[in-house]
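Hi V.,

Quick status before I head out on leave. The structure for the redesign project is tokenized and pasted below; the design run finished overnight.
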């Protein structure tokens, strides 16, 4: 009986040794050689924010010797136009695709179809339930909390807030909204005497600048008790400044913005915008392409399984009046960087 047990143990050990040898051979084999990976980058629009992203993508493609096709739907956050481009994408002859999904739920099926035949990463906004290999971008939950913190600083006695956002279909918009709500709830839970910051309305504009401006003016005219206006998209800074001027509230209204369009930075520099939460779209594009090329040149066994959480984080930063000059100097140099920062 003891001899049988010993034989069984030897068989198990032999099988384990073979498995370890097979695993090590797979994991440590030489990476695949792809001289010039063929990549596609599909943005969420063609405005200044997206232009910076494709500039970073182009620079990375030059650095890592990849061929890149850039697809930019007209406008900002136009789901219909982007979705037409997404549905027309073919994986044949393409080594990797970077997508900024405008509606994670509706576009997951198309992302999964592409992922069956090529490597897909999401950039700027995620599709967390899809089979993409990696997400490149910020933690939007954390960014939303930063935004709420700036509102708390701008309104130390508390107050009523209205928030502009392009949609609630993009994963990043959902995350930023949740982050703001969590921060306000956390502040209230820590101290029941803490000032109350109430979000009165979430104004959705579908990425339409005119609609953003018009509905914000209409809302502020109908509600004279609003203390702060927040914008969660790159184009909101200038539109919020226009709206508060239009209704004669420029001297009263606190404004917290997102990203770093020129109108927004001008507003922060003049003190009219209390702060903005700046992303780095150049680095998003740069990092997305580098991630794709690294994945293309790796073996399948070295990649995270499809759908598993895998994130390359590029953090956001708070820009206030005293930070604008330094930020502009650093920001404008991004296009001249030789190395990834």
């Amino acid at each position: 009986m003891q001899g049988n047990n010993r034989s069984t143990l030897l068989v198990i050990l032999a099988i384990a040794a073979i498995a370890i040898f097979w695993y090590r051979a797979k994991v440590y084999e030489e990476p695949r050689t792809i001289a010039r990976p063929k990549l596609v980058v599909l943005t969420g629009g063609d405005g200044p924010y997206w232009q910076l992203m494709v500039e970073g993508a182009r620079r990375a493609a030059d650095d890592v010797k990849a061929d890149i096709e850039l697809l930019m739907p007209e406008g900002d956050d136009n789901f219909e136009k982007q979705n037409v481009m997404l549905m027309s994408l073919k994986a044949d002859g393409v080594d990797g695709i970077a997508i900024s999904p405008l509606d994670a739920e509706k576009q997951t099926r198309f992302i999964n179809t592409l992922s069956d035949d090529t490597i897909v990463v999401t950039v700027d906004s995620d599709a967390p339930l899809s089979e993409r290999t990696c997400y490149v971008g910020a933690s939007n939950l954390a960014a939303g909390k930063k935004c709420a913190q700036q509102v708390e600083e701008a309104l130390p006695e508390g107050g009523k807030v209205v928030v502009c956002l392009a949609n609630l279909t993009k994963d990043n918009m959902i995350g930023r909204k949740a982050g703001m709500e969590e921060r306000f709830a956390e502040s209230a839970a820590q101290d029941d005497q803490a000032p109350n910051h109430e979000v009165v309305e979430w104004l959705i504009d579908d990425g339409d600048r005119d609609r953003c401006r018009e509905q914000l003016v209409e809302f502020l005219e109908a509600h004279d008790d609003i203390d702060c206006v927040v914008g969660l998209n790159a184009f909101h800074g200038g539109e919020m400044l226009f709206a508060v001027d239009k209704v004669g509230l420029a001297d009263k209204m606190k404004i917290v913005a997102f990203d770093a369009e020129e109108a927004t930075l001008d507003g922060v520099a003049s003190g009219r915008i209390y702060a903005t939460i700046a992303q780095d779209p150049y680095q998003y594009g740069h990092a997305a392409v580098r991630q794709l090329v690294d994945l293309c040149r790796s073996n399948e066994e070295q990649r995270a399984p499809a759908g598993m959480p895998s994130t390359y984080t590029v953090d956001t930063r708070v820009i206030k009046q005293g930070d604008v000059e330094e930020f502009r100097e650093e920001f404008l140099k991004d296009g001249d960087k030789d190395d990834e920062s």
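Above is the designed sequence. The chain has eleven helices and twelve strands.

G. will cover questions while I'm gone.

Best,
W.
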